[in-house]
Amino acid sequence: MSSSLGETIVKRLSEVYKIEKDEFAPLNFKDPFLILISIILSQNTTDKNALKAMKNLLASRLTTPQDFLKAGTEKIKQLIKVAGLYEQKANTIISLASWTLEKYGGDLTKLKQEEPEKVYEELTRIKGIGPKTADVFLIFYLKVRTFPIDTHIRRVVKRIGIAEGSYENMKKKLLQVFPDPFKAHILLIKHGRTTCTARNPKCNQCVINNFCKYYSSLNYSKKDN
After folding, report:
1. Fewer Cβ atoms within 10 A, N terminus or C terminus of the chain?
2. CATH of region 3-19+147-224, choose from 1.10.1670.10, 3.40.630.30, 3.40.50.2300, 1.20.120.80
3. Cα dist from 203 to 9, 13, 35, 194, 197, whole Å
4. Cα-flanking dihedrals φ and ψ of residue 115, to 5°?
């Protein structure tokens, strides 16, 4: 599939959807440490829940790695309960805070001086930070040309017929199809949340259904009946 298809998909989706900051937690912060925490909190929950947890942390004046290490795991758990998986996420945040202090003296803006591959490798060594979390940070903060894949994107692109398989294989394919991966990433997630939902997708309302193999198969099955 060509990049012209990707450009057309992004153009059509951008005409339909307006992106709000509260729909994507990392858009609400400039500090790289806080961006990373917001991404961790958004794992397996909505960005709105992640932002509620972030609000609790900030209200308790937890903004730096030192603050989080001083507060300790138990306090963090209580503050981030709304985001779910709070024990796992609290441990990840503590590990991240320790790594940030030990490796970068508490200043993650220094990551801009590193090669993206190295940043990705180091982040994914931290327990609780996987490929998607690392890629989200790379694209949102470092503006690296990568393509984070969540459940919504996986569902949408598989239905269209653009990509399938492993995380890395899908990422490679999507980077070929979409010239602007950041915009495509956000719009495909919005599309998956709004129209191309897991259950009862609104296929007849979809502005890209003429590209979609799933939609075509539904029409063929109706004709057969």
Report:
1. C
2. 1.10.1670.10
3. 15, 14, 34, 11, 9
4. -70, 140
Q: Is there a catalytic annotation at residue 132?
A: yes
- Respond yes or no: is residue 67 known to be catalytic: no
Out of 89, 132, 171, 190, the active site residue is: 132
Q: Domain ranges in the chain? A: 3-19+147-224, 31-140
Expressed in percent and rounded to 5, the helix, strand and coil fractions of the chain are 70, 0, 30
Q: How far apart are CA 98 and CA 77, in angstroms?
A: 17
**Which CATH code for domain 31-140?**
1.10.340.30
Taking the CB of residue 183, how many other CB atoms lie within 10 A of it? 16
- The one catalytic residue in 52, 77, 81, 150 is 150
Res 222: pLDDT: 54
Nearest residue to 205 (alpha-carbon basis) of 12, 5, 2: 12
Predicted local confidence at residue 225, as pLDDT = 43
Q: What is the pLDDT of residue 224?
A: 46
Report, as ranges of residue numbers, the positions in the chain whose pLDDT lies below 70.
Answer: 1-2, 220-225
Q: State the Cα–Cα distance between residues 138 and 114, nearest whole angstrom.
A: 11
